[in-house]
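Open question from group meeting: does this chain pack into something compact, or does most of it stay loose? Before anyone orders reagents, we agreed to write out a predicted structure and look at it together. Recording both the input and the output here so the notebook holds the full record.
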Amino acid sequence: MQPENVIRETLIYLHRYRNQKIVVKLGADVVREVEKLEILSDILWLKKSRIHIIITHAQPELNPQDWISLDNMGIVIDRSSLEDIDQYVALGKIPIIYCIGSEIISADTVIAQVAVATNASKLIYATNRDGIFNEQGNLIHQMTTEEAENILRQELVTGGMKQKVEATIMACKAGVPRVQIINGLRPGSLLKEIFTASGIGTMIYDGRNAYQLIRKARISDIVPIVSILSDSKLETVIVFEDIASKIHQFIVFDEDQLVHGCMLMRENLEFGILEVEYLASSTPYEPAEVMRQLLQYAIDAALARRYLEYVSIDAGKSDTWLGLSTWFSQMGFEKTKIQDGKKTWVKKL
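Structure tokens returned:
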């Protein structure tokens, strides 16, 4: 991703979370390394950006006053004072809450209740793990509460991580939009999570609120589409005015209200073909998956129009890009050359 796009993405999230509350649970290992990792300095920076962090922990021996980085801005409060949380925030304080569990309820669930009670926009569990992994051992970047419940049924998580997933599901269903389980031992983890679309770790959200969707492009999508295409290895020269004139033919992959993939669809009724161009993605993780979802959308659109017999995608990229042929082939596309020697992928419906 180009530096200017990184800055643009950061500014978008800075605007989104300004004057919002984010509850952060610091795990035991993270608490021990909190000063070394400069987590408190990052929290101070967030506060100066008017993003209100509420620190929670479950370490009875912890004396938060030892956290010198907070510059007297930290204030230890009891859970019984949550109704006054906005007053502490208005006074420029960073609330620090000790949350103890019991035999009946885990500390992670208590922290989830804090996030619900304070109307937090996000809850972050900063742990010593990178997140939740699937059966193949791959990190799950995001999933719905329904998918998280399935993870529990499959017993893919145990112990403390199981408690976090259970607490996360409760928090999401009670109104917390996003819950993230991240590795707090990685430098800058909080900043990477809050200010990037891909974030880090595993995000869980209520499936009733769309996080990812494929939709028709709008006028406001012209700039991100041009940016994505300019960063891609397309052989075609990208001209802003040209893309703007074709904007209503574009389909975009929208993640968390940000455009991270696009394609142009054009019906060639004379030959019964749905032509796809400008297939590209800026997503920093699994870009092929984003493009696969867009291409599946095109296939479904062609199938819905029974008079279309083929889906054709312009392969106007470098040979390196053609290395994506594995999943192209899996979707039933064959690489061909038309009369002028132009490379094309075609799928017969």
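Observations to bring back to the group:
The two ends are 35 Å apart (CA to CA).
Residues 133 and 139 are 4 Å apart (CA to CA).
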